[in-house]
Amino acid sequence: MSDIATRPAPNLLANPLVKAGLIFAAVIAALAIGVRLDPTNTLYAIFVDPFQQMAQAPDLLVQTVWEGLVSGVLYALIALGFVLIFKASGVFNFAQGIMVVFAALTLVGLYEKGVPAFLAVILTLGVMFALAVTIERVVLRPLVNQPDIILFMATFGITYFLIGFGEALFGGNPKQMIAEQLYLPKGAVDLQILGGLVSLQKIDIAAALIASLMIAALAAFFQYTRIGRALRAVADSHKAALSVGISLNQIWVIVWFTAGIVALITGIMWGARSDVSFALEIVALKALPVLILGGFTSIPGAIVGGLIIGIGEKLGEFYWGPLIGGGIESWLAYFIALGFLLFRPQGLFGDKIIERI
Amino acid sequence: MNAEPINVTGVPVRDKGEVLLSVENISLRFGGVKAITDVSFDIRKGEIRAIIGPNGAGKTSMLNCINGFYQPQEGQIVFKGERRAKMRPHRAAAGGIARTFQNVALFKGMSTLDNIMTGRTLKMKKGFFWQALRHGPAMQEEIAHRRVVEDIIDFLQIEHIRKLPVGKLPYGLQKRVELGRALAMEPELLLLDEPMAGMNLEEKEDMCRFILDVNNQFGTTIALIEHDMGVVMDLSDRVVVLEYGRKIADGTPDEVKANQKVIDAYLGVAH
Amino acid sequence: MLYREAGQYKSTYSADMAVFPLREDRIGIAVILGVALVAIPFLGSDFFIASVMIPFLIFSLAAVGLNILTGYTGLISLGTAAFMGVGAYSCYKLTTIFPGVNIIVLILVSGLFSAGIGVLFGLPSLRIKGFYLAVATLAAQFFLQWAFVRVPWLFNYNASGAIEVPQRTLFDIPLTGASATPETRYFVCLGLVVVLTWFASNIVHGKLGRSWMAVRDMDIAAELMGIKLLNAKLAAFAVSSYFCGVAGAMMIFLWYGGGEAADVFSIRLSFNILFMVIIGGLGSLIGSFFGAAFLSILPTALKFGLPALGIPIQGAAAEHVTFMLVGALIIIFLIVEPHGLARLWQIGKQKLRTWPFPY
């Protein structure tokens, strides 16, 4: 599939139509900014002023980068769920975002029913396993050998079902994550750097640590265990893996369950920062540009891509956003990814694809 | 057998000898892998030119260079007197180079008729608004091209599968439809990449007959890759032999057959 | 016996190339059009026309548009709603700037703006394919949705950020605005949808349509046959966005009658239209209508149908059940018939053709 997904066309920028289009787009964007400002100041506002601000208040810059880093870690975690499933089953799992919400909601919901916090975590893991088995039985198994787009659409179906199911069970209102009960740290660490105060939330530090640990564990799992080897085999070719006796069904359950664990951890971290609600579903879409940057099959790619997107969008919003009215965080990530694609269509860590006919 | 053009249809036979396309010192690399190294040969008007060689010799890459799908790092291609280092696929198509593919590359969701009709795309000129109306000039154009396509369908004897989606046809017929699609472009140079791969004897004989007929009736120049030596020796006027991306022999089938290097390449050589 | 091709000889290529080569099909279409033109407006209640038929027609048009892009050309788009929004906002600006021009003309023209924006966001499609392209279209979705909120010029600096649909008439009959009757709006919708679908059908059966399908099925071969990929893909983006834009303009002017359009053209709508196309059948115009009928009528049917059956269900719960049902139905459909309702329709016709002697 990856070869279908990324066919590089040679030197796109050499195409006059494309070039004209890009220039046109750039001019429109520049004009949109220009009308809002004094024309002579436009260039200054774009190219000089933000950097001056950065230099004048380095503590703010550090704070912004840190914020970006943290949201980048969370994007990376969601992207990681995508990558796991894509690698092993070739399914582009649109439902990863909703799985995060669903896992977090289940955890909080169980706790509210009076289940002790850590038992609730274990029970939630059980629910995620049940979900993985159900998805494999009900959705993946009947759809084996269908084109990728069909499987992709099926995960849309899963998404919708889980939204309805989750709302019906737990209600649509935002919930509070049980961060304290899980002994997650609260409060902030204030650092005195560069002549200013930079405030780091402890939960963010914990999130970054836990994410790194999990990624290391996953990498080791993939690299050194028998199941990990089977997973890589399946990722390369379903048929070849079947022919050497690897059970696809078993692998799929394992992969979806792993993605479920990742989803739960992401959900806890995310929920501890804001709250648990279905709004996360839209945020989870940001994992897609992360995937574009990192490539659909690369775990390090997901991490680095997540960080680039996270930091890039926070910097963009903070320093350039006000120029065009703010709120550009909602789309900047996609444009960063598109910009990258123009130069490296195979992603940061992808190999150059040679097409054969 | 020598495919001397026989004037059966009244189509004027172009004299052989004039060079239609020549490949000059082509080299193609993928990263560090050398697919083709410094290969030159020419294709003359009206001839059937075979490109043979063991697997991985760079035959398909050579065809890909000729019609612009790959761009060689070194060397030039002269087509109809025009010399260029790089060929763009649609330029090649517009210049009259058509091809078929090793693994059938038909448009699987479309019917046989529509597949062959796509071959006429370059020759259809009516603009978007006429197409949106599908009446008047656009319809007349469709009908005119449909006539040509029906002639090709008759020629290849695939009338019965006209409206069937090609994805469901047996392999031999798919190959035939693919040939039809290439013919619909009315090419001057037809590149056939293993037109008989995976066919049984009867289908091979049919395909050979079609290739010879195309060459005779339409005067189309043909370059083909084929592994069946019997077919190659019977059909072709001249043969070029590649091994590991280099040219090791070039000449008439008899010359090539006698060439020691070719024998070594195919039968192996004691070291 | 009733539906067969035996005995219907075609003596010209144009008869063979007709979209409905069988007499029975032509009769069927005539009957459907007759019902749509006469029976529905005279027999249907205002409620039925305003909340079932008009949404159905508008969604059908949007689904036809997306089907051109996704079904015929094989380019996934998650930005349909944004392109619809471009149509709606262009139409609004156009009515403000040219109040004298007929609203139907303006609706048709506003599609052109949508087509232009569509081409712009389609440019990356040369370089990227498949899911990567889906992300590129998400960029369009979020950027345009942001613009609908943040660029006050688009909604005439209205404090609430909402679009107000002015009253526009044709021969003194109000077509848009508060005093337009559901029947009039329905007729306008019907006319636009029928004409535009006819155009779409012509295009997909002609040279351009064949190039699109060639690009979809095997882009390399298409390129080597002289089809310029960029042109074909951009044409698909343009035509598709045109249809979506017109559908968006119709949505605001003939259905909603104004409101906070930025909320309407959200990513949810994009997904919904994609589902319509998938459930209806990729690469089938009639499938777009089936899919739109199914998904636009299902929520209404659930909301009013379940209580009527004696199953008590409240507003919020109904919504949850709708979500779950839609999700489950998508999966069931994909398992049972991945090629959508259109394929079921074809199979049915095939059965009918040989009935009652299938051997």
UniProtKB/TrEMBL annotation, chain A:
Coiled-coil zones: none
Name of one Pfam family that matches: BPD_transp_2
Keywords: Amino-acid transport, Cell membrane, Membrane, Transmembrane, Transmembrane helix, Transport
Keyword Disulfide bond set for record: no
TM region(s), chain numbering: 12-35, 68-86, 91-111, 117-140, 149-170, 205-225, 246-270, 290-311, 318-343
InterPro entries, sorted: ABC_transp_permease (IPR001851), BCAA_transport_permease (IPR052157)
Superkingdom of this protein's organism: Bacteria
Subcellular location: Cell membrane
Membrane topology of this protein: Multi-pass membrane protein
Family: Belongs to the binding-protein-dependent transport system permease family. LivHM subfamily.
PANTHER family with a match to the protein in the record: ABC TRANSPORTER PERMEASE PROTEIN, BRANCHED-CHAIN AMINO ACID TRANSPORT SYSTEM PERMEASE PROTEIN LIVH
Annotated protein name in UniProt: Branched-chain amino acid transport system permease protein
Native species: Bosea robiniae
From TrEMBL, chain B:
UniProt keyword terms in alphabetical order: ATP-binding, Nucleotide-binding, Transport
GO molecular function: ATP binding
Keyword Flavoprotein assigned: no
Keyword Nucleotide-binding belongs to the record: yes
Domain ABC transporter: residue ranges: 21-269
PROSITE patterns: ABC_TRANSPORTER_2
Xref: InterPro entries: AAA+_ATPase (IPR003593), ABC_AA/LPS_Transport (IPR051120), ABC_transporter-like_ATP-bd (IPR003439), BCA_ABC_TP_C (IPR032823), P-loop_NTPase (IPR027417)
Protein's name according to its UniProt entry: Branched-chain amino acid transport system ATP-binding protein
UniProtKB/TrEMBL annotation, chain C:
Superkingdom of origin: Bacteria
Any Pfam family the entry gives: BPD_transp_2
Compartments where located: Cell membrane
Membrane topology, record value: Multi-pass membrane protein
Transmembrane segments: 27-49, 56-83, 103-123, 130-148, 184-204, 234-257, 269-295, 316-336
Keywords annotated in UniProt: Cell membrane, Membrane, Transmembrane, Transmembrane helix
Main location group: membrane
PANTHER family xrefs: ABC TRANSPORTER PERMEASE PROTEIN, HIGH-AFFINITY BRANCHED-CHAIN AMINO ACID TRANSPORT SYSTEM PERMEASE
Stated name of the protein: Branched-chain amino acid transport system permease protein
Source organism: Bosea robiniae
Lineage per the UniProt record: Bacteria, Pseudomonadati, Pseudomonadota, Alphaproteobacteria, Hyphomicrobiales
